[in-house]
Amino acid sequence: MLAPDERLDDLLTHQLHIIQSREVFSFSMDAVLLARFAAIPPRGRILDLCTGNGVIPLLLTTRTKAAIDAVEIQPRLADMAKRSVEANGLEEQITIYEGDLRDFHKQNGHGTYDFITVNPPYMPAGTGDQNENEHFAMARHERNGTLNDIVAACARLVRPGGRMAMVHRPSRLVEILETMRKWKLEPKRMRFVHPHAEAESNMVLIEAARDGKPDMKMLPPLIVYNEERQYNEELMQIYYGNQAAAGVHTKENGK
User: Fold this and answer.
1) Looking at the predicted structure, is the pLDDT value of residue 99 above 80?
2) I need a surface site. Which of 6, 69, 71, 251 has the fewest CB within 10 A?
3) ∠ CA 145-90-8, rounded to 5°
4) Where do the domains of the chain lie, and which CATH numbers do they carry?
5) How confident is the model at residue 2 (pLDDT cuts 50, 70, 90)?
6) 79 CB contacts (<8 Å, ≥6 apart)?
C-alpha cells in the first residue's frame, strides 16, 4: 500500500490517517484552518479543489455526512489521496478525481455543489523562489491555473446560493475580492490569521456566496502563538479538540 518513501501519519486526533512523503507537498496549517473555518452543510454535496493528498476532505468527514468530491491535477498526489481515503474506509463518502479544475465542470456539470473549499497555490507563476522539486513548485505557484481560473471554476461548480471558502495570502486580498465579485461570488465572511499578536497577518480565510448580496462579516483575528511561542488555546482546540490539554504536536510543511 505504501511506496518506499511514504509514511502513514495520524491526522491530528480524529482517528484518521493520511499518506505523506517527503518527496511531495505535505499538508500544513492553512489546510487545517480552512477545513474548520468553512461553514459546510451537514448534508448535500461538497467539492475540494487543489486537494493535494486529500487532507481537507478527510478532515471534513468529521463535520458532515455530505458526499465529498476532490480534484487534484498531480497524479502522484491524487493517487496518495485515493489510498488515504481507502485506508480510512471512507470510499462511500469521498471520491478523488485526478484532473484539471479548469475543466471539471465539463465532467460534473455546472452548479453541482452546495459548498466548495480550495487551498490554491499562493504565488503567480514565475514569481518568488522556484523550487527545484516539481511537486513543491506546483503546490506553491500557479502553474496549472491562475487565481482567476480557480475562482471561475468555483463559480461554475457551486449552485446559486451555495458557498465557497478559500485560504490565501493577505498580500493578494484586493485581487481575490475583485476576482470573486467578477465571477458573482460575494464575500460574506473573512478572518485574518496572525503568527503572533504583534505580527502582520500571513493568512486570510474568506467565504463567499454565489449570487449573494453585499454584506461581509469580519471575524476576530486568529492568533496562532501566545507569548510563550506555544499554540494559543483556540488553535489547540482546532487541531486537537478535547485532547488539547495533552500538549500533543504535529509536524508541518508550510507553503
Assistant:
1) yes
2) 251
3) 80
4) 7-241 (3.40.50.150)
5) confident
6) 98
Contacts of residue 199, Cβ cutoff 8 Å, sequence gap at least 6? none
Could you read off the pLDDT of 224-252 as tens digits, one per residue? 999 888 999 999 988 887 554 444 443 34
Considering only residues 10 and 23, tell me which one the structure prediction assigns the higher pLDDT: 10
Q: Mind spelling out the 3-state secondary structure of the chain? A: CCCCCEEEEEECCCCEEEEEECCCCCCCHHHHHHHHHCCCCCCCEEEEECCCCCHHHHHHCCCCCCEEEEEECCHHHHHHHHHHHHHCCCCCCEEEEECCHHHHHHHHCCCCEEEEEECCCCECCCCCCCCCCHHHHHHHECCCCCHHHHHHHHHHHEEEEEEEEEEECHHHHHHHHHHHHHCCEEEEEEEEEECCCCCCCCEEEEEEEECCCCCCEECCCEECECCCCCECHHHHHHHHHHHHHHCCCCCCCCC
| Chain length of the chain | 255
pTM of the model: 0.89
Query: How far is 254 from 122, CA to CA, in rounded Å?
Result: 11
C-beta of residue 49 within 8 angstroms of C-beta of residue 71? yes
Residue 141 has pLDDT above 50, yes or no: no
